[in-house]
Amino acid sequence: MTRLHKKTFPWFLWHRRIGLLSVLLMIILAITGIALNHTEELQLDQKIIRNDSILNWYGLNPKGPPISFPLDKTRITQWGDKLFYNDRIVTNSLDTLVGAVRSGNNILVIAFTNSLLLLDSEGEMIEQISPDFVPIIKLGLKDGEVIAKSTTGDQYRADQNIVSWQADAAPAIDWSHSIELESEWQQKIKLAWRGNGLTIERVILDLHSGRIFNARWGVYIMDAGAIFILLLSMSGGWMWWTRKQKIAGKKHFQKHHR
Amino acid sequence: MLNPILFFAGLLCLSTSVLAENIYQTADSFVSESFAGTAPDAEVLGLSADLKKQIEDILSHSYTGQRIRYWYSGERSVWVLEEIGKTKPITVGIVINKQKIEIVKVLAFRESRGWEVKYPFFTGQFTQAGLTAEHTLDRSIDGISGATLSVRALTKLARIALLLDQQLKPP
Q1: Is there a contact between A163 and B69 if contact means CB atoms under 8 Å apart?
Q2: pLDDT digits (tens, 9 = 90+) for A240-256
Q3: Using H for helix, E for strand and C for coil, what is the string for chain B?
């Protein structure tokens, strides 16, 4: 005689499926959770990430190629929206760097399309000006005097303190030219570009919350992981209870009905 | 019936014009106008550490730069200064005469809101304003609803121009 088994919900099967599905999320939640509980001892908020892949993921790498003008051993570089004196950020600028020269008076004159920036010999800002002859396309020197050329083709010469400008059609100007920035400078500037940088704590927090996957919907991934843990707990608890009842019933049967 | 393509193109142009930089007058033109067409040569005022600190106290943020240029003749000085309103700089021309403000004029406005400060009904409030010992204006300036940050920027620049003018010695 066959015994017809009552159709029961396959708890074990789903418990296994949910477990397999969420194993990676649970590992991430567990490890990051433990790490965050010990942020201070592990100094996670003070250690800086240097890995290029992670920094690229966070958008902490400048876009596009750098534009760099050499001034002897000094490099005046624009990368992204930042201007650098060697590897030190001078200012932010969305304008385009078109030239840089050192005047006879040792003032660094940096030309953007729509403005001029004056730095002292230490790279400290003296003044930023927007002369009427913008847009500027070139900057050069003649006999130690700074010459700027505008898009109209007109040239203007600055006085020695770079206070006033006069029209000057002098020929044979030594125009400044950009160079391909050397790789060691690129590395230094990249580090400076990132500012205080990305801490390990930040990355772990974003991993724990899911925001590392996407700022908007990444949290739902970890929410799903948390829900899976809940379901596993409930299904696991239910299976333990029913199995306990089953064993108790079996023992009762064996004791009283055999 | 209105062509929807033209309609949306028009809306786009309108939105871009609202967002674009508005240059009402160049600095050179303002300076020339302020001196009735015969502007003196520009000069520069070096910023001592103390003066820079006073400027930063007015601005409530740091100030980079070691000098500020100006034009000076008789007892009139002209300054072209910039300060961020909400996110973009506002360029303002200020004429000081006998240590009182003669003119405040918005030369360039680069934001989509707060441009009401360019109108004479607002800038006219600064006429004959002077600087107190605490480096505040000696009168209150009525704000404009929805332009608080622009109003604040212009007020700061007016104070700074008066402060800088005090540093000048008559030729």
Answers
A1: yes
A2: 888 888 888 887 777 77
A3: CCCHHHHHHHHHHHHHHHHCCEECCCHHHHHHHHCCCCCCCCEEEECCHHHHHHHHHHHCCCCCCCEEEEEEECCEEEEEEEEECCCCEEEEEEEEECCEEEEEEEEEECCCCCHHHHCHHHHHHHCCCCECCCCCECCCCCCCCCCHHHHHHHHHHHHHHHHHHHHCCCC
How large is the ipTM? 0.79
**A161 contacts in chain B (CB < 8 Å):** 44
Cβ of residue B81 closer than 8 Å to a chain A Cβ: no
pLDDT computed for residue A238 by the predictor: 87
Which pLDDT score is estimated for A111?
97
pLDDT at residue B21, as a whole number: 76
A130, A132, A162: which to substitute to probe chain B, counting the most B Cβ within 10 Å? A130
CB environment A169-184: b (16+ within 10 A), e (fewer): eeeebeebebeebeee
With both helix axes pointing from N to C terminus, report the angle between B148-167 and B49-59 in degrees, rounded to the nearest 10: 160
As given in the structure block, the two tokens for residue B46 are 């070096």
**pLDDT tens-digit readout, A152-161:** 999 999 999 9
Residues of chain B neighbouring A91 (CB-CB closer than 8 A): 64
Give CA–CA dist B49/A118, Å, rounded: 19
In chain A, residues with a C-beta closer than 8 Å to the C-beta of B29 are 132
> Does residue B10 surpass a pLDDT of 80?
no
